[in-house]
Amino acid sequence: MEEEKMNLRLDIDVQKLEVEKLRKRKNKAEEDLDSLKIDYKKLRLSMKTARLGKTSE
């Protein structure tokens, strides 16, 4: 019975560590996505600005 409790505690600890690792990966992915969105907006703006700067021939 005690051994079973100890095994369950170990399982819980392992699960907590896995959850924490997944949370960190998720947060990193969200940060990367936000960064990509910002870069995309900057790129679109610079493309728009470059088109406006062209002269018609």
Write a structural description.
This protein has 57 residues and is mainly alpha-helical. It is 91% helix and 0% strand. It contains 1 helix and no strands. It is rod-shaped. 0% of the residues are buried. The mean pLDDT is 92. Keywords: Coiled coil. Residues 5-46 form a coiled coil.
Describe how the helices and strands are arranged.
Layout (H helix, E strand, L loop, with lengths): L1 H52 L4
Brief write-up:
This protein has one helix at residues 2-53. It is mainly α and 57 residues long.
Q: Which descriptors would you attach to this protein?
A:
57 residues; 0% strand
C-alpha-based Rg, rounded = 25 Å
Gross geometry: rod-shaped
**Strand count, sense and closure of the main sheet?**
none
Report strand %: under 5%
Coiled coil: 5-46
Keywords: Coiled coil
